[in-house]
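It would be a great kindness if you could assist me with a short task in structural biology. I am sending you one protein, given as its amino acid sequence and as whole-number tokens for its backbone shapes. I would ask you to consider whether the tokens describe a fold that such a sequence might reasonably adopt. The full record is reproduced below for your convenience.
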Amino acid sequence: MQFVEAQGAKIPAIGLGTWELSGNECARVVEQALRLGYRHIDTAQIYDNEREVGEGVRASHVRRSDLFVTTKVWTTHFGPNDLIRSTKESLVKLRLSEIDLLLLHWPNPQVPLEETLGALAHAKELGMTRHIGVSNFTVALLAQAVAACPAPLVCNQIEYHPFLDQTKVLAACAEHGIAVVAYSPIAKGQAKSAEILARIGATHGKSAAQVSLRWLVQQNVVAIPRTSKIERLSQNIDVFDFELSDSEMAEIFAMGSANRRLTNVMHAPEWD
């Protein structure tokens, strides 16, 4: 497994996203993923599956010190006391003594960013999480967050796949020494039917989805694909034994545009 390093954190380059996984299925997929060699699991308070993620982690019998578990604080818990309380609840549900990476899930303009980041840094100080970061932050919000946060921010988790041009946010993350974690890295399955990705994959004996993930890994971006299918779990982590050429990378970059965003909710910021 490769790692992406930022601000003292070593994040496994491929992780398992768990959005929309629930109940026994969620616990089963997490357990299987860890047995297959995954070491990075991503969940969130709003997914309502932290308890099942914890069950899967325990069932796998993988040593805690080998795991990297991320969860995200929901926007309604951004008041300082609320953030600490809800993080404690996440730890109880996951049955962990600490989280590896605690993120703010979306920007929330209703609560001063300085207050929320102060509480996030305090959660780290209290030993509730080893690292902290943000998710869905724009270039401007990222600059504000870095300036206002009393502790280093490790990552910005964003939607990123071959169809979506994220050049500006990537440059901002690089400037601040922050890792990029890509959610929807296979574009919610759309990458599988992309002709360019399939053609490139055929030359390497890989699928279009694997090419999409490899393209991210070669940018030193962490990818957290979600799947409930065991065979896909195996394929998604099997991207470290081939390399895309410079011309293949460029061809995939050329697929991207600013208006191919798949996650655009009501409370989203004004995107770059």
Remarks:
- Strands lie at 3-6, 9-12, 16-17, 40-42, 68-73, 99-104, 129-135, 153-159, 179-183, 222-223.
- The CA atoms of residues 54 and 96 lie 8 Å apart.
